[in-house]
Amino acid sequence: MRLLATLIFLAVCASSAALGETRVAFVVGNSKYQAATALENPGRDARSIAETLRGLDFKVDLRTDLTRDGFARALSAFLKENAEADVTFFYFGGHGMQFDGRNYLLATDARLETELDIAGETIALDTVVELLKRNSKAALVFIDACRDNPLANRFYAQNLPLTRGQATRGLAPVQTSYEGAMLVFAASPGQVAYDGGANGSPFATALAAHLPSANIEVLSLMKRVIRDVKVATQGFQTPIVTNDLTREIYLKKAVAVVETPPQPAPPMVVPAAPAVAVVDEREVLEQQKFEAAKWLGTPRAWALYFRDFPNGKLKQEALAEEEKALEWVVRAFVKKPPPVGVFIAADDITTDIARSVDAWYGLTRTDALAVQALLKRAGFYDGAVDGDLGPKSRDAIRVFQAANGLRATGIVTRATGNALGLRAAQRVDELRPVKSSTRPVRQGAKQLEILGEDARVVAASRNYLEYENYTYGLFAGHVYIAVQNDWKATFDILANTVTKTGGHLATITSKEENDFIVELIRYDYSYWSDYRNIWTAGPTIGLVQKKGAREPAGGWEWVTGEPMSYRNWAPEKPNNNEGRANIGEFGHDHVSHPSTGGRHDWGRWDDFYNPRASYIIEIE
Questions:
Q1: What is the CATH superfamily name and number for domain 468-619?
Q2: Are 284 and 313 in contact (CB under 8 A)?
Q3: Which of 70, 75, 172, 310 is deepest in the core (most CB within 10 A)?
Q4: Cα–Cα distances in Å, from 353 out to 338, 349, 440?
Q5: How many C-beta neighbours within 10 Å does residue 36 have?
Q6: pTM score
Q7: Do the beta carbons of residue 94 and residue 145 sit within 8 Å?
């Protein structure tokens, strides 16, 4: 007799009633800014999130295009009506900014002419989070407000004095713990989030896709959101999560129910010995290194991966990921790059740009000679083998790249070198590039360690810099780290804090050392700020003036006690600004000053009286 079995799978969504759980949501999409070009997607994104949350049994208060007063009244009424909710979900899409280390959400009537306008035209994010967690057992806060912001950019340019925290793109890292709350930002500190096309922002799209996933805790959901956003933006945007929740939260639960009629007991069978899984340790290690390099997303990270696995099983995927990291280097040399997430057209990469990118990576004349010789041997080049990759050589590289299915940029990429048969140096001391990237990003200690990065860099990240954005490089046996935005009130506090990394504020004793440090900070303007088109200030270094020294040039020394054997003051500096400037920082006249010829004089120093939010660490 044929046995019949009926398999019934009931996906029973755990409603708030079933769980005895109160779920509420306050969702805002600000698109129509009065003093800036309207954003395409926040309103659409907010409606998508609201619809998703209603399907998860949230009572949703959806608002669009709120003024400052409208926002305050609506949020106050929402919190009053929904006090003591089990789960409160907050989503904001629109413009945001940072100032003095705090993050602000911009209302649609914001104009931001002066500092006094901040309180009246913005909403302090830390205040919002504090109110949400105070009125809820668990607060989930999602901020899609890191878009390129013309209001904030104009405000920074017109109002930010040198004595204040450095203005940067995007939002600032969260330094405060909010017990019972989870904060999720669409992009990492200092990044600008992509607004997206007709389908909405990548962040909101990923949220709407993954929030309804059954039987997955919310933190695990966020990992999927991060993955999707990085893929959608080709690695240019990485959401960041700050979690202080004290319990696990499942937005949707499913219960599997299986019904079968009674069955006769099966005959006893002696089980066979279980098969022993064979694990290839090299494959496991390669996968770990691949994931670590992908998480970091820097040219240096991929160089570390390829050092150990030049021909691994993940080689093609790694080459594609390395191309994304390369794009950030290319953007550093393009005057007007396209929006973040859009690759620069290969035709727009001139010979000069390709030459600059190759130089940044550390391509040598010996390498260039080999490239020309190999191109000639392959029939793609008939010019002189002279080590100068000029227009004719670059054209040959482009034709070769196109013939081999590569992006025809004219840049000597790793994939190009592999196709040519050019063997890159594999030893650690010859690893290229020696700099991490042209842009500051978070450098996870775990990922750096997996990749086998210099132990000093790993320790600095683990002991202090884990949540800071920075670039780093190795020069003459020392490690140099350029921290983007970590403001300290006084020079003494900054100097003492830096010792947690195992190093000190940088002491510069030669032109070569100075030039190397400048290469870490010149390509990303978040390290710099302008003061009323008068001068430009950059990161703090370990230069300090003794108390009571003769002004303006007397008594200057390095924090380590090293003598000032090398000086690189800007013209007419030091000048003891306001009668109290006693610390050294990178700085020079603004490019509009006649003395500059319209060019930044990146490597010069100036004297100031407060440290910058950016600074340079040296570890010996």
A1: Mannose-Binding Protein A, subunit A (3.10.100.10)
A2: no
A3: 172
A4: 15, 6, 21
A5: 19
A6: 0.61
A7: yes
